Write the structure tokens for this entry.
Amino acid sequence: MASDRLQPTRWGDRLGTTLRSVFKLDPILLFFVAVIAMIGVVAGYSAAEQSEAWVERSIVRLGLGFGLMLLIAQIPQRWFFAVAPWLYAMVALMLVAVWLVGDMGGGARRWLDLGVIRFQPAELMKVAMPMMIAWFLARRPLPPRPLDVLVAVLAVGIPTVLIAGQPDLGSSLLIMASGLFVLFFAGLSWWYLGAFVGLVIAAMPVMWFFVMHAYQKERVLTLLDPTSDPLGAGYHTIQSMIAIGSGGVWGKGWLQGTQSHLDFLPEGTTDFILAVYAEEFGLMGLLVLFLLYLAVIWRGLWIAEHAESVEGRLLAASISMTFMVYVLVNAGMVLGLLPVVGAPLPLMSYGGTALVTIMVGLGMLMSIRTQRSFLGHNR
Amino acid sequence: MLDRLHDHGRARRVFRQRILFAALISLVVVLTLLGRAAWLQIAQHDHYLAKAEKNRTRLVVVPPERGRIFDAQGEVVADNVATYQVQITPEHSQDVGVELAMLADVLGLDTRAVEALEERIRVSRRFDPVLVKADLDEVERARIARLKPWLPGTEIVSSLKRVYPYRELLAHVVGYVGRINAEDVKRLDPDAYQGTQYIGKTGIERQYEDRLHGEPGYRVVEVDALGREVKVLDTQRPVPGKDIALTIDVGLQGVAAAALGEYAGAVVAQDPRDGAIRALVSRPSFDPNLFVDGISHKAYRELLEDPDRPLYNRATRATYPPGSTIKPVMGLAGMEYGLIDPDERFFAGPYYQIPGNDHRYRDWRKWGHGWVDFEESVFRSVDVYYYDLAFRMGIDRMHAFLTEFGIGQETGIDLPGESAGLMPSRDWKQRVKQQVWFPGETVIAGIGQGYMLSTMLQLADMTSTLALSGVRHVPWLVADDREPQPRLTLSSDDYWQRARGAMRAVVGHERGTAHKIEAPYPIAGKTGTAQVFSVAQDEEYDAEELERRLHDHALFVGFAPFDDPKLSVAVIAEHGGSGSGTAAPIARQVMDFWFGVEPDADVQPEFSEHGD
């Protein structure tokens, strides 16, 4: 019988099914994510002057991150949507509270001090926003009607404006994107999308003259000509491009990067880790890394396509594309395509809150992949 | 129902399209990023490689040498001495373990220190030197030098360290430097302090930090791919800090400190002709050398918790009631306001009463002084005379006049942390205590007690003003362009002569309170006591100690020679009893040294209970 030939496949299939149903995780996604994280440690070791203590700390952080991801994956997806409106409302209130009584830090009002801990509600909103919009739209006929679109746009817009005013332009754009992605996947008509893009372009001069801070404008201007301010805003971009460009196709080899090691490149383990990696592993290294990122994004979209519930589909697709935006913004900045904003590279940059947010998103993706609604069954 | 199912199917279809679109977009994004990377790494590779080469120069900062501090005679009071440290560069060593073992043996390092060093070497780059031991002594240096052939990775390097040869003698004036801490970083220019380890923390070291520090130089060095120095491309020598000469005379300072003996207290000696401070003593003191490389927590706590408070500058920071030392100034005020005729005799009984009030303000002399004129009131220090004068003058006029003489005002000396003292007024009392001024408070203010507080520096400066009949100078320690102070003028120059003459009689008249310090050169002065009102609660009960702490502080201010004043002195001996018994002889010793007179064996500080 043909079954003999199919035996190994079926065995592998069964293993995957078992992992999915018992441990509630997606082995494919887990694999890509783990490989990227490993590359991050390898590159960070070099950037951190080969400090073993750094590696230890970073592995502990990643361990906690993966633990969190797998924990989130165990939660039935309908629970996310049961709490979505409440979480959204709570975080929105916190943002208002930050506006009123927040702690100043580094010239920006971003933190809420709860006595025991200080945290940024903006980070929580990155999680709450797509959940909320997905919850809202999934309860209405799709594609969404104009009134529903209006409500959703308001739900996206208010926190975005609050966070942009902190000022935290980077976070506000990411949060806006995560909400709009849900609208996009819900089937918002191309006319609306076209109108939105038109609006954004029209709004740019307004932003430039009335909203953006001087330092933000400076960063945009230096992007056009980094050499105009070689010791100030352009310094990062110039040093980063030198590191990457001198890496060539094959790179200088692990631990052999001169630019990152001579302290020419600041923030080598955090926002600019990609430059360290590109210098030492070259274009080939970047190719591997970007394909891994693409694999994560595509796997996320695949999970969205195969999700059973409408809300799960919308949430999974939004998480995947927001992940892409993270990669685009950081890599664009390091490669000198976008202005310098404090944005981490997912799973590579060393840092706490960003890792938590990303891991929560990936955990949700796994949950949507494995947790079926009460009518569902494993396919 | 059908419509909704239809809608559902349509939404599903739209979703699939959008997913595909998103997948396409993400592919385009990744390809764009890769394209940009390819452009940088292939097309622009040579360009950026060249830039990376150029990037390989490094700036090595060379900190400047700190300016030294000298006294008026050119004695070094803050010096820089070379200290040596041994460091090991793993790359140059054949076997780091063996070298470390040898060094541990020679330097007597324990196993824990060696393990810590091994860990440091393991984590640092092979070409970066690792510090093995700082502050090597000569023996250690010699031993390492002898073993040099077997220690290829080991080298001895020198660095400069601040040293205060006079230790506690000048600690309160010169101050000290310490390692730059987070607080210092806020106030200093990071460029100017690159590579600098020390910064002035107190005293002259802090006041003249900018002048002492200098400007750093640098070397531009070429480094190889791993950051080793290959060669020096350019050198800019550092500009050393400027030396500073103080007005202080170390000899006089030493005599003044010795004259205070066991007493806690202060001596300030000033040249009345230009305001230069010749001695500024605060006892007890501390060794500033302890602070240079960071004082141990225990030693610092000991200094802080010492009941004698050695860190407290009693010359410029501590404030005491000026006591009877203000009587000459009070007399000037009385003459100026037309309240006294210096020749008119006044009956001074054993006490004074405000008209219509029962409270008795007692004279220090139980049975009073009888009929006295102004001069007698000063040289016999008649309290009742000044109770009466103060009451008639009122606190408002007193406040105005004594403020002119600097009481309650910072003198403006070039030292950080000077106290203003306090010249009380109605306004001050209302503001601080929310109470009205009582006439009784005016009465005791007349003999420099009550709320009135002054520093020894202020009293020395006030004495200089008296010595030169109103010529004033801001006291100073480092020669500088100083604005001349407007001269104090009174309606008659004779008032000055009266007050000065009365001060001369304090020493010169056989019934003067300080007659026993009469010297071959004419001294004028005024004794005083500062009442000790409250006693700090001692943890351990010690009758003798407690009793000592109840004694008044002894004060003396004076100047000499009377006809051509060259030195003014203010002395406080805490719990010294009386100004005549304790403080005046101390001032005499200071003046003897200054005027080159053999010390008079008869005049020794002695404890006596009251007397002025």
About this structure: The radius of gyration of chain A is 22 Å.
